Amino acid sequence: MSATTLQRPAAGTAPAKPAAPTEQEVQAYLRLGLRNRWWPILPSRYVEAGGKPLGIKRLGDPLVLWRDVDGQIHVQIDRCPHRAVPLSRGQNEGTSIRCNYHGVEVGPDGTVLSVPGQPGCPLEGKKAVKTYPAREIAGAIFVWFGDALHPEPAPFTPPPQLVSEEWSRFLCYADWEMFWRYSYDNIMDPMHGTFLHANSHTMYQGETEAKFVTRDTPTGFIFEKEGQRDVNFDWSELVDDGALYGRLEIPYPASAGPGGNFAIIGFSTPIDEDTNASFFWRCRRTTGWQRDTWRFLYKTRIEARHWAVLEQDRQMLANCKPGLEKFEMLYQHDAGLIRLRRYLAQQARLQLTALREAGKA
């Protein structure tokens, strides 16, 4: 046998284990977000019942969104199974979507219903268009982005701030030109509020020096200022429980109306490597006439101030590309975002490893 002859493993020998993902591969995988999570993709109001299909991109996937005549939302890959042109340039037929290029009709479950140019062709009856599990929560469309091993959605119980009748909420949505994870870094960095938002009507108090501690929770962790609560932006929480989001509270003065602290639930959904769709629910625990008072004050006096605070964050992080970490010199206040980054890398590594071992990557 020559030296160049391929050596086959002996019978019964286990195949070689795939190489573990490198740090570079893990970070590349994270550029488009973590799979196997529910992600908000768009406010519900953007898609009308029976209206024109809408094409967007999320987690790098081209998506078409449309509602049937009953108002049910449908999210599918934005690609006709015939010539791969965007279905979002087609027609909403009320119970199906039709491609304008050659008239191929696709049902809500991705099955090709008709091919007018060749009736009875093998394409008809095939489930040829990827369809994403979707649900609507608190005025936003959420989609399950599973990998090849997890096509079926995992359970997701939204936080009470988004679904409980005891809470009143407003959704703030904006597309930001920055790497999606930097938005989560921002949430897990309570100290920036003391400086960047020092002139805010709610974040001017509190010490400019602080020691931070980390506290584990069943679904993530809390990063908080030691010995300071209900003064400023004093703590933030990372939650990973079917969906990945941040939660925090900011104390409100009595002049801002009833309801106690102001809670924020934040998601940052990757669009591509350089942009994200940011969702911030602004919530207060109010009912009855107090809810009406709070909602009136919010729309007439408070909302513009909140947008101004968000604009400060956006300007600071605008056009920040992946890879800035190599220039950073972090200190104790950054322990929350350091832990966040390690956690995301760990989750990405687990997903990549499982896909490789299953021959799916």
UniProtKB/TrEMBL annotation:
Residues 9-21 have a biased composition (Low complexity). Residues 1-22 are annotated as: Disordered. InterPro entries: Cholesterol_7-desaturase (IPR050584), Rieske_2Fe-2S (IPR017941), Rieske_2Fe-2S_sf (IPR036922), VanA_C_cat (IPR044043). It comes from the Bacteria. GO terms for molecular function: 2 iron, 2 sulfur cluster binding; dioxygenase activity; metal ion binding. Pfam families: Rieske, VanA_C. This is Aromatic ring-hydroxylating dioxygenase subunit alpha. It comes from Roseomonas acroporae.
